[in-house]
Specification:
The complex is a heterodimer. By secondary structure, chain A is of the alpha+beta class. Chain A is built from 12 helices and 9 strands. Classes of the chains: A alpha+beta, B alpha+beta. Bound molecules: flavin-adenine dinucleotide.
């Protein structure tokens, strides 16, 4: 695999940053998020990302991608986080595309070219109402019916599921004791009911009820009957890492915004940045962001190098990122005083995005619990 | 240390029972339904409930008897709060009963007492607080809104900001500048202003919780009778600080803490992980235990401040109020965060439409989700309003530790 060298990574980062700085300011963000009857993001921006080749950074070359690794994808996600981009990066490029790339047949992988081209969006619908953060709880059933499968079950709220062309749905084959498998289900399949709703951070998503959905045998991802829970867990881990990268970008922005604000806001006859407690707070925010960045970077390297400890490294990065995100996000609001509490200021939107990312695929407490039992 | 005596008073059981059964019979069914669904109440719905409490004199139960209160002991006040919280009753709106009232009965004229106290006790009149300005937040004494004497009136010009519920209020108590010479604190006066006076404009501010609670209030040549001045001209800072001490104790609303801890217990019982309820998860059990310990501590701090209020003639000590506000608001945020950490298992959905009665969409997750999310987001401000946590620490550093 060619991989990117440092200069290429830098170039990727710079081109993303300059594009988003020019096209995705706070006003654009609010417009995309709140356009009546819109999907809560910019489909135009998504096409532009595709034109720039950013949607394919981590996709294989045979699918029109550039063949980079998770690190390159994380550069895209961190830039998205820094600019509060609303588009379906994680569901489409990480959990959705990687499930298909890792487990799909050659025929199924054809869809990846459409992903790189920006014409198809994906969402992984795995979690269920009774599952919480547990990854091995699947009650959705795929009943075999001749050459077809019939899917019945309920999937929890998934960001961007309402916009995905194809849902990657987990289900147990046969009955509750059957192997868990993944199925490619068109969002508009008959029997699929979506309840579309806004999330805390203003992006949209949906719960999905599967009521006797019929799909062909070619909808079953891959060509064997083995249980896929390990694979699903690996895919979720990549999603975790992606969400951490996005959070790191958002935290870096919050710290910068707070530094600028405290330098200009005056109380007691001087800029707030002159108060040493506030200087130390900013330092803690900056160091927290760095801790998260470094731990995510370490995890990215172990994933891209296929090291045996990659999973643990991802979970460590997740716990660290959750802690940092909770602290940095809350301080962003706190340090702005009343201004931080308004919808009119960007910092509150970062607070909400960070809370959303923190909760994605599990929070720090949950991962600590898992690590302590491992 | 450990000096305050608490009289053994078995009649408190009866007192608790009285509050409890009152809540059971008097809390209107629609209000109860909205509260448990986490929906916003209309002003009229609050008003209905607060008037019922007002008729019993319970909004102002801890006021001294000479000013129309019941002279409740700290223990009685805490019991009252606990029972309201457990009943899921709407929160008490503090601007009249907690803030304006004690200033008026302590520093106001006879005429002002007669004009305003009954309306506050019965909740016939809604108040709001005109302290903060764009340039005067933490540095409150920097306020610029001007009141210039003109015959029997003051003419007020300027702007207030972050004025909670100004759009619902009948009256506003305002800090205004009557003198720009000398020390900033010395030129401040305390004025009561009828919100219907010509020249007042209220503009909404939408918060991160996506609701309207905050406002900007603009004053353009607003004519206010000089008889609405509290105490002496130029002495407003003294009254302002007295009010802030009461406000900070009021910021720690035990009823809310009880209510949202109950919500948390319910959520953990009804939310599953890997098919098992979270209430069986040792880490959640421990977390709830920790919140309960913190609540017990905050209640103990609260009892001391309520006792100090009775002893010191109407307000707690600045230091004690600061410590209580600091820890109380941190606890409030921890309780809300724990609720949200459970709700995150449903995807952290925030259906703001569900906050309004009559919405007929399909809620995702537990019924109260939107209300809990709203409260969580809004209470990010608990460590900002009433003087931020940083300012409370400065007060303790200077005042208590002499730094
Ligand atoms: C939800 C809400 C409701 C409110 N309701 C009302 C109301 O009804 N009436 C009213 O008059 N006001 C109200 N306020 C205003 C509130 O009192 C002010 O927001 C608060 O005093 C902080 O002022 P500020 O917003 O200007 O922040 P700033 O003073 O600009 O503070 C910004 C940050 O700097 C910190 N800081 C400031 N000075 C220092 C220092 N010396 N040392 C260390 N840190 C410092 C602060 O703690 C804060 O974190 C409300 C505010 C909110 C958010």
């Amino acid at each position: 695999m060619p991989g990117f060298d440092s200069d290429e990574r830098k170039l990727l980062d710079e081109s993303l940053q300059s594009f988003l700085t020019d096209t995705y300011d706070f006003e654009a963000f609010k417009r995309h998020m709140r356009t009546e009857d819109g999907p809560g993001f910019s489909t135009q921006a998504w096409s532009q990302y595709a034109e720039q080749g950013w949607l394919g950074v981590a996709l294989p070359e045979y699918a029109g991608g550039i063949g980079g690794g998770m690190t390159e994808l994380a550069i895209v996600l961190a830039a998205a986080g820094r600019h509060l981009a609303l588009e379906p990066f994680i569901g489409t490029l990480v959990t959705g595309a990687m499930a298909i790339e890792k487990a799909g047949t050659a025929g199924q992988q054809a869809i990846l070219a459409d992903v790189a081209g920006g014409t198809k969006m994906l969402a992984l619908c795995h979690a269920e109402p009774q599952a919480g953060y547990a990854r091995d709880y699947v009650a959705t059933i795929a009943r075999k019916d001749g050459d077809a499968y019939v899917l019945d079950g309920e999937k929890s709220f998934t960001l961007h599921a309402h916009a995905a062309d194809v849902l990657v749905v987990s289900a147990r084959v046969g009955d509750a004791s059957g192997p868990a498998q993944l199925f490619l289900v068109p969002r508009d399949a008959s029997g699929a009911t979506l309840n579309v709703a806004p999330a805390l951070d203003g992006r949209q998503g949906a719960t999905v009820t599967l009521n006797g959905i019929q799909v062909g045998s070619d909808a079953r991802l891959g060509d064997n009957d083995d249980d896929r829970l390990d694979l699903i867990s690996d895919i979720i881990d990549l999603g975790v890492l992606g969400s951490c990268a996005e959070a790191v970008g958002a935290m870096a922005a919050v710290t910068d915004i707070c530094v600028d604000y405290l330098k200009t806001r005056e109380q007691f006859g001087q800029p707030l940045s002159k108060f040493q407690v506030l200087q130390h707070r900013l330092v803690d925010m900056s160091v927290s962001t760095e801790e998260a960045r470094a731990s995510v970077h370490a995890a990215l390297q172990s994933v891209d190098d296929k090291r045996p400890g990659a999973k643990t490294a991802i979970w460590h990065a997740k716990v660290q990122t959750c802690r940092s995100a909770r602290f940095v996000g809350a301080q962003g609001v706190q340090l702005h005083g009343g201004m931080g509490m308004t919808d009119e200021l960007v910092v509150g939107h970062y607070y909400k995005r960070l809370a959303q990312l923190e909760a994605m695929f599990g929070d720090a407490e949950w991962y600590l619990g898992q690590l302590s039992m491992a | 240390m450990f000096i305050r005596t608490v009289a053994e008073d078995t009649s408190l059981d009866a007192f608790r029972e009285e509050i409890r059964s009152f809540c059971e019979t008097e809390l209107p069914a629609e209000v109860r339904r909205k509260q448990s669904a986490g929906q916003h109440l209309e002003r009229e719905e609050y008003d209905d409930w607060l008037k019922r409490l007002g008729a019993k004199g319970w909004l102002t139960g801890k006021w001294p008897a000479e000013h129309g209160g019941h002279g409740w002991s700290p223990e009685q006040h805490l019991i009252f709060s606990e029972e309201l919280g457990r009943a899921g009753a709407p929160p008490i709106v503090p601007f009249g009963a907690v803030m304006a009232g004690p200033v008026i009965y302590t520093f106001g004229s006879e005429a002002q007492k007669q004009q305003h106290l009954p309306g506050i006790m019965k909740n016939d009149v809604w108040w709001c607080q005109g302290y903060s300005e764009p340039g005067a937040g933490s540095d409150l004494a920097n306020l610029k809104t001007k009141a210039v004497r003109d015959g029997d009136d003051y003419i007020v010009n300027g702007q207030k900001i972050w004025t909670s519920q100004a759009h619902w209020a009948d009256w506003i108590f305002c800090l205004v500048r009557t003198n720009s010479d000398g020390k900033k604190q010395q030129g401040i006066s305390f004025l009561l202003i009828d919100m219907k006076t010509p020249g007042i404009e209220v503009r909404p501010i939408i918060s991160i919780a996506l609701g309207h609670h905050l406002n900007e209030v603009f004053f353009t040549d607003v004519r206010v009778p000089a008889s609405n001045l509290i105490g002496e001209e130029g002495n407003g800072w003294t009254y302002a600080k007295f009010l802030l001490a009461n406000e900070r104790v009021g910021n720690v609303d035990i009823a809310k803490f009880e209510h949202y801890l109950d919500e948390l217990r319910k959520l953990t019982a009804n939310t599953h992980e890997g098919g098992r309820p979270l209430s069986e998860d040792p880490s959640f059990k421990r977390r709830i235990a920790e919140l309960e310990v913190n609540l017990a501590t905050v209640k103990a701090l609260m009892a001391d401040q309520l006792a100090a209020t009775r002893e010191h003639g109407g307000a707690p000590t600045m230091m004690g109020a600061a410590a209580l506000k600091l820890r109380g608001t941190e606890l409030q945020q921890s309780i809300m965060q724990a609720n949200v950490d459970v709700l995150a298992r449903y995807g952290l959905v925030y259906q703001t439409d569900a906050l309004h009665a009559g919405w007929n969409g399909e809620a995702i997750g537990p019924e109260a989700t939107a209300g809990l999310m709203y409260e969580h987001l809004y209470r990010r401000a608990a460590t900002i309003y009433g003087g931020s946590s940083e300012i409370q620490k400065n007060i303790i550093a200077k005042g208590a530790l002499g730094l």
